[in-house]
Design goal:
Blueprint: H1 2-18, H2 22-30, E1 36-38, E2 41-43, H3 49-60, H4 67-73, E3 77-86, E4 91-99, H5 105-116, E5 120-123, H6 128-140, E6 145-147, H7 151-154, E7 171-177, E8 180-184, E9 192-194, H8 195-202, E10 212-215, H9 222-237, H10 247-255, H11 265-268, H12 275-286, H13 297-311, H14 316-336, H15 343-357, H16 363-379, H17 388-412
Antiparallel strand pairs: 1-2, 3-4, 5-10, 6-7, 6-10, 7-8, 8-9
Helix pairs in contact: 1-2, 1-15, 3-4, 4-9, 4-13, 9-17, 10-17, 12-14, 13-14, 14-17, 15-16
Domain DUF4872: 202-353
InterPro entries: BtrH_N, DUF4872
Pfam family, one: BtrH_N
């Protein structure tokens, strides 16, 4: 038992220091571990919630495919930035979009499955009973389902009540068991959720209320899907939108130092309130240690390496460039939330993510770490506003690098 506690502590310490995901940190600390199987379902883990959900359903259905290739098939990378201010508790949260169609979860899932040639059914309803009955029917028929529960109501992330209704990310439900269900949220050990809690979480967010995708794994049209996804990525990120394409990074780099704009950071954070929380939300979003896979540039790079062989295209140099860009994002996150001054905040964030990866066995650890995290977050000392120019410079560098890399991607793809 003591050995297990020491191993967990070492993994979580590495996550907090480096921003790595649980899987990556565990591999560095303890080496690769074989996946666990629960009631016939193999828990492969994963990096990004949506691409991992699709890959894990297909793997368990007998049609193995890597998560990076699923990510490419879905359109690869995206870009987006929103600053939310909440007057009721004087807080601010930075929402970042790193995946194609990040603001449209159903469109991403429908497009990805269609490209891959995976048969699926979509079910939505305003009624809780109908939604619950449909999920039970699909599970009884042996079909794993992808659902979108609210992060607060699902429970095992132990999010605070202020996040009630703020949404969540896709998870797989693969088995019903009395008054509970077994879920795959990239956890590496079995995770059981109370059925009433899941039903409430599925019905909380109006824009995708009770949405369910029931998949029927089968042979994939992988080459076509990956090529279509890469073309989609290149076209999308070459767009002019400063909300949902690469110009969003340029706009953000200017907003960070603009003291006159309504959403300019020197104006929004003039009294320092909410700034510490905003910096933590940036670190959680950019680094893989957060809830949804980080900035994805490393995941995309892995996909490009695999696609180079799959499609016979010159993509390896681009893969190396996107790994470099992933490093630029890491440096940006370190600037936003330096490890030395924020060690405990980072340790607690890593502890929550690690505990979820450990399944139901980590529930007590997740609850304890989350309670301390949110209490500490409310009392955290904000950094000095003088660091805004450093953030702006790093964002401008990222914008230039990604713009050039996307242009190179367009040039590397065959004409239609």
């Amino acid at each position: 038992m003591t050995g297990k506690k020491q191993l967990k502590a070492r993994i979580r310490a590495r996550m907090a220091k480096t921003g790595e995901s649980y899987t990556t940190a565990r591999m560095h600390v303890a080496g690769a571990a074989g996946p666990q199987t629960n009631h016939g379902w193999t828990l492969h883990g994963g990096r990004h919630s949506a691409s991992a959900a699709v890959a894990n359903v297909l793997r368990n259905g007998g049609f193995p495919v890597s998560e990076p290739l699923v990510y490419l098939a879905g359109g690869g990378l995206g870009a987006g930035y929103i600053l939310w201010e909440f007057k009721r508790d004087q807080s601010a949260t930075v929402v970042l979009g790193f995946r194609n169609r990040w603001q449209y979860p159903q469109k991403w899932m429908d497009t990805t499955l269609t490209r891959l040639g995976v048969p699926f059914d979509v079910h939505t309803t305003g009624g809780a009973k109908g939604a619950s009955a449909r999920l039970s029917a699909e599970l009884a028929a042996g079909r794993a389902c992808v659902v979108l529960p609210d992060l607060y109501h699902i429970g095992y992330w132990h999010a605070p009540a202020v996040l009630d209704g703020h949404g969540g990310h896709p998870v797989v439900v693969y088995r019903e068991d009395g008054d509970g269900v077994w879920v795959d949220d990239r956890n590496l050990a079995p995770l059981r959720v109370d059925r009433a809690r899941l039903d409430a979480a599925r019905g909380r967010v109006g824009s995708y209320k009770n949405m369910l995708h029931a998949l029927t794994p089968g042979p994939l049209r992988l080459e076509e899907a990956v090529l279509e996804g890469l073309r989609d990525c290149a076209e999308h990120l070459s767009g002019s939108s400063d909300s949902f394409s690469l110009p969003a990074w340029r706009k953000w780099s200017r907003t960070v130092v603009d003291g006159s704009a309504a959403k300019g950071w020197p104006k929004v954070f003039a009294d320092g309130r909410g700034l510490a929380g905003a910096m933590l939300s940036i670190w959680e979003a950019v680094e893989p240690v957060g809830t949804d896979g980080g900035n994805h540039r490393d995941l995309f790079a892995d996909g490009l390496d695999e696609a180079a062989d799959l499609l016979g295209l010159p993509l390896r140099d681009l893969a190396a460039e996107f790994r470099r860009i992933h490093g630029l994002w890491h440096d940006f996150a370190e600037t936003a939330l330096p490890e030395t001054e924020n060690r405990r905040l980072r340790e607690l964030t890593a502890a929550v993510r690690a505990a979820v990866a450990e399944g139901s066995a980590g529930a007590a650890d997740a609850e304890s770490a989350a309670a301390e995290l949110w209490a500490l977050k409310a009392e955290a000392t904000p950094p000095e506003p003088g660091f805004f120019p450093a953030l702006g410079e790093r964002l401008a560098t990222i914008h230039r690098a990604e713009t050039a890399a996307v242009a190179a991607l367009r040039a590397a793809l065959p004409a239609q």
